[in-house]
Known about the structure:
Elements: E1 6-8, H1 9-21, H2 25-28, E2 38-40, H3 41-51, E3 64-65, E4 71-74, E5 78-82, E6 88-93, E7 103-108, E8 123-125, H4 131-143, H5 150-153
Antiparallel strand pairs: 1-2, 3-4, 4-5, 5-6, 6-7, 7-8
Amino acid sequence: MTPDTTLTKAQFQVAYRLADTFGHTWAIASGLQCTEESISIAEIRKNTERRNYRGRPFGLVSPYVDNDGVVQHTDGQVEWAIYPDGAYIIRVHHDPDGEVLGAVLEYQSETKPFPYSDQMVELIVSEHATLMPAQVMIQCLTALEVSIPARLTDMKDVAE
């Protein structure tokens, strides 16, 4: 990622909503909007740093964009990839009893097929999925104004 790396408007809008939901500094402290067709990471950083307490940024001051132009985020429990066309994949992980599992829930926007499938799949639910990861996924989808799949709202905790 270079300082002149840009996000498309569609990419920014998805990234901003998710980042705001999870309290990323660049979204909650900025009030930033993308009024053009793209916005640079440098502009996002500058805006974040200007609005932070005493000029000292804390937390995430801008989204991370990989070499393919995809916004990537992972914090252990939630990860997302947002493509330049605004398509996205959200994965929620779960760590029951210290045992690290892969993604237990995965949601993909309708505009991008999975890299490993020719079929359009929106939601994958693993057998290890519990109520807590479902609530996190619901937060993400609510932020993006996506209809919540019944499979998430009907989910019960495995321990029940």
